[in-house]
Amino acid sequence: MVSNRIYLCLAHMSGQEQKYIQEAFDTNWVVPLGPNVNAFEADLEHFVGQDKKVVALSSGTAAVHLALIACGVKAGDEVIVQSFTFCASSNPVTYLGATPVFVDSEAESWNMDPVLLEEAIVDRMKVTGKKPKAIIPVYLYGMPARIEEIMLIAAKYDIPVIEDAAEGLGSRYDGQVCGTFGKFGVLSFNGNKMITTSGGGALICPDEEAKQKIMFYATQARESYPYYQHEEIGYNYRLSNICAGIGRGQMTVIEEHIAHHRHVCGLYRELLADVDGVELHENPTSRQDSNYWLNTVLLSEDLHVKGEEHAYEQVVHGAVGGAAGVTHQAASAHTDCEPNANVEAMRMALDVAGIESRPLWKPMHLQPVFRQNPAYTNGVSEALFKRGLCLPSGPCVTDDDVAYIVNQIKVNIL
Ligand SMILES: Cc1ncc(COP(=O)(O)O)c(C=O)c1O
Fold first, then answer.
1. Which atom of ligand 1 is the closest one to the Cα of 59?
2. Which CATH code fits 255-411?
3. Mean pLDDT of 214-219
4. Any atom of ligand 1 within 6 Å of the Cβ of 137
């Protein structure tokens, strides 16, 4: 993708990727297994540490799905999911016929509120007579959740935790890599993530036995016979050896990418310091060490932005993030819960200036598709959704780009 537009987080190649891809062709490993897959997993295991094992998969969504299966989630079960997230955290719960129960965020990290989590567990046990089968906290925009408190509550009720670290690769809490606290950790290597395999993901597993089980489900649950014998339902979720070659190349620059996202955060901090009404979201305590996958800002409700009287006048064409060119015509320009007019006006103004920005993710408990689901809310994620905007943060964003972006923000404030 070559253009002068400044994107949120475009993929950036190390130059090593083609070597590993060529090797795959030269050795005829053009399948969803092989030397690149094994080596990429080894690189990831080295990176995450904690003696964890990693399975490379076709997407982060597949990783959530398989983690749920490994936690024994079945039709009729409930799974607690952070509401403030991308739909891939909760959708796989429904693939299994189980119900996502949403828990709101706390205002500092923007991730799962541990107090509300315990309230939800206690209430679900009272209402349904059984415990939720798993808990899925998320590292939204890379920001570490209050994982220590979440783990203590999960241990108290003996419920497994699946950390959704799809956006949080390389973030740390108390120095430990996010995704290594719970029973399972989800990673994504989609084109817009910290590193990419074009599309892909991984599941961080507690040990070799769990890894073997995940690989079994990821390869159609084939039993050990000379012919196809299936005693369970499996999936075709293994990462291709070609894509894993891209991943190996990307692992050579992962630390650089993380450092760059943090550098971009520092620039936003410096340049936005004197801009009233625009607040950058940063590590709330010294325990959190975000990868700043996406830098995000909140706009004060009383901030006025040029063109806000025209916000939402037009129906937007095309889904957020492109969605591979898929369009699904919206019925109207409005929904019953949307970002404030000043946020939409800023998004539109930046768009005209060649800058991609994006509203914060709309919480799952406010999505029509999950309207009937139980939700334990405190208003935090809804308020953030209405006020927030994600700004370009990826490895292709230069210092000059950040200066230009902040300048465009300033000139559009009335
Ligand atoms: C929070 C979160 N969870 C899960 C996913 C799913 O990852 P993938 O796109 O690789 O399926 C994503 C990203 O797309 C995400 O942002």
1. 10
2. 3.90.1150.10
3. 98
4. no
